[in-house]
TrEMBL record:
Gene3D superfamilies: Trypsin Inhibitor V, subunit A. InterPro entries: Prot_inh_I78. It comes from Penicillium frequentans. The lineage of its organism: Eukaryota, Fungi, Dikarya, Ascomycota, Pezizomycotina. This is Uncharacterized protein. It comes from the Eukaryota.
Amino acid sequence: MPLVVPGITTNSAKGDKSDWVNKLMGKKISDSGSNEISFAKKDLPESHRVLKPGDMKTMDHNPDRLNIHLGEDDTVQNVTYG
């Protein structure tokens, strides 16, 4: 069985991390529409989770799941897959 390293040796249709970084960094996740300071939840991939500081999270690895890490001010600080 070959070694599979998510994001390096896999090529899925989820999109590139840098695309999501460019779209989300510094913005707030909103239930309504997207604009200069917010991004609509409805425009995120189906497999995603928004993580606030101190949130509990599962440790299962899902290479297609977009993880959106918020800061204390609820703006996006980091984006990862897993």
